[in-house]
Amino acid sequence: MSDQTRRIDIDVPVLSRVEGEGALEVHAAGGRITDLKLRIFEPPRMFERFLEGRGYHEVADAVARICGICPVAYQMSAVQALESIFGVEPGDWVRAMRRVFYCGEWIQSHALHIHLLALPDFFGYDSALAMAADYPGEVRRGMRLQALGNELMALFGARAVHPVGARVGGFHHAPKAADVADLRGRLEAAIPEAEALARWAAGFDLPDNGQEFPCLALRNGADYPMNRGRIAASTGLDVPVAEFADHVTEEQVPHSTAFHARLDGEPYLVGPLARLNINADVLPAATRALLADTGPALPSTNPFHSLLARALEIHAALVEAVRLLGDYRVPERPYAEVAPRAGTGYGATEAPRGVLWHRYETDDAGRVTAARIVPPTAQNQARMEEDLRLSLEARGLDAPDDELRFLGERVIRNYDPCISCATHFLDLTVHRR
Amino acid sequence: MGKAGDEAKPRVAVHKFSSCDGCQLAFLDLGEDLVRLAELVDFVHFAEAGPVDPEAETDIAFVEGSISTPGEAERIKRIRANTRYLVPIGACATSGGIQALRNLHDGKQWLADVYPSPEYVESLATSTGIADNVTVDYQLWGCPVNGRQVLAAVRALLWGVDPVPERDKVCMECKRAGHVCVLVSRGQPCLGPVTVTGCGALCPAFGRDCYGCYGPAENPNPDALGRRFEGLGLMREDVARRFHFIHSHREPLHGAGLRWGGGGGRGP
């Protein structure tokens, strides 16, 4: 660095309302950013390593522990990959109920992110509880939606965090028809609440920094993707799940424990806005009608539309769960029999935060011999850095440090990064020249 | 949340170490009760919910997650020094969690297996519970802990009485609830006979075997249960993996798993 560099160190207290320890280092010259690093420190827990040697029936309970907010996503990608190895056909009932189970997680995770993590940024509070005093109706509505999502997960999994109902082949247990009918009625009653949430969110004053970025999501052309689809991207990519790793490369960078993923060499977006950009035509009709009223115009190039995309997905998940539970019956057996065999299998599902891809190899007894997991937040990290660069430059690097830091935090939170990290320090260091 | 300088209310922190964030959800999923709780206590640090003051003096510090990096080993000492009650919550904080499986192997080698450039990553070879590092006052077991447990603990401490730890085995709760025994009737390798209550016997209620996510009960006999599992047709290595899963680093499960051949054959 030249001696004209004015270096400012700002110790920001813990970056709140995200999961993750971030540090942001910015080098600027002549009003332009020359180098930017978003540091993410996730103490490695080495799941891929300790899955080796585990029986196939243990994997769902193990991988749930990767994330307390989206355990269903990990379970669904894992059982799908293992079923593809063993040639298991779980059948229509299991497929429909897995979608319902997943709807629960989307509702819970999106409602939690919107209300507890993101909204305070939009209204200038430091927490949802502080906000609840002035917006009691809105915050409580969010908590009610979150609770409904949790109940739906518990219906199939006995509890919402690390649910115990999922297994290779289907479910351990089918809920009673009376319990399903009761919850379905309450889900249906919540659809207007989700609609009101989306209409409210559509009115927020958003930073608009139109950006060009490729989007990647599952697509099957028949329904909004959760458990089924090929890997599709706005670049025209359309490949089977097994070929994901041919197009997405992961690299380890010195400043982060999360691998950086790139799509054919470029940063790209996964998650609610990417799904909406790629799959709006297969939303449930009621959600499509709502989208026509609320926007955004698609494809959206404003990452801050992610919050509205989450609200629309809550609505879609409620509509889907109500539809799929409409003719619920208790099956003779809630799972298909499994006969393990050796092989390699792939699974990809849409976690609340985006595509979650798993690859497993098993031996004859169905024990895992190799595992690879690509979570959505690792895929979004390069895109987050690019967004930070564009957003900070658009704001102007002569802005006060506090303002740049707040904008940086807001940009990061908008991606709903799900990084189980030790601490949450965002140290913004701006080197100006 | 709490207002600065609100001296009348107990000051509470929720800290995170190496974990999945699932135990913090015991608070964040409380809904209306979370709003009420925030009226009773002053949340001075709870990063995921908003308030940030990691060095604050507190009456109760709840800690989620295990100690798995050099930085965490230092940070927990400061938290201990700054709080009256230190309460680890969940499997990671109480016994190192599922990621403590690396303690049975060569943790440094594992890091090299997962990361092409392990030198970029700060990590300890082991993952350990909070009580292995500093003195703790109470512990809440479970993977994850639930809202009932955290509210009961807060409520007890607010009244100035000790929270009462669970000691019973899952079998007791299972029988009280009237579930059919999955070990006897279906031949499943259920860990209920050695696992502590607190979950609500959820797995047997769903017709499946308990996998021990709440950790060992009082006076368990894992070896007798292991022999029973062998009688069901499990190989010794399968029995070892039953004991070495969510609470592999905690006795007597740790030792039992080693006796049944787990942990790459490394002795205790």
UniProtKB/TrEMBL annotation, chain A:
Keyword list (alphabetical) reads: Iron, Magnesium, Metal-binding, Nickel, Oxidoreductase
**Superkingdom as given in the UniProt entry:** Bacteria
Residues that bind Ni(2+), according to the entry? Answer: 67, 70, 418
Question: Which cofactor(s) does the record list?
Answer: Fe cation; Ni(2+)
* UniProt binding sites for Fe cation: 70, 421
| One Gene Ontology MF term | ferredoxin hydrogenase activity
Residue numbers binding Mg(2+): 48, 373, 424
> A Pfam family name for this chain?
NiFeSe_Hases
Q: Which Gene3D superfamilies match?
A: Cytochrome-c3 Hydrogenase, chain B (1.10.645.10)
Query: PANTHER family given for it?
Result: COENZYME F420 HYDROGENASE, SUBUNIT ALPHA, CYTOSOLIC NIFE-HYDROGENASE, ALPHA SUBUNIT
Name used for this protein in its record: Coenzyme F420-reducing hydrogenase, alpha subunit
Organism for this UniProt entry: Thiohalorhabdus denitrificans
UniProtKB/TrEMBL annotation, chain B:
UniProt cross-references to SUPFAM superfamilies, sorted A to Z: HydA/Nqo6-like
Q: Which cofactor does it need?
A: [3Fe-4S] cluster
Ranges for domain NADH:ubiquinone oxidoreductase-like 20kDa subunit come to 20-157
Say if the entry is tagged with keyword Ribosomal protein.
no
User: What would be one Pfam family of this protein?
Assistant: Oxidored_q6
Keywords, A to Z?
3Fe-4S, Iron, Iron-sulfur, Metal-binding, Oxidoreductase
Tell me, what is one Gene Ontology molecular-function annotation carried by this entry? oxidoreductase activity
UniProt protein name: Coenzyme F420-reducing hydrogenase, gamma subunit
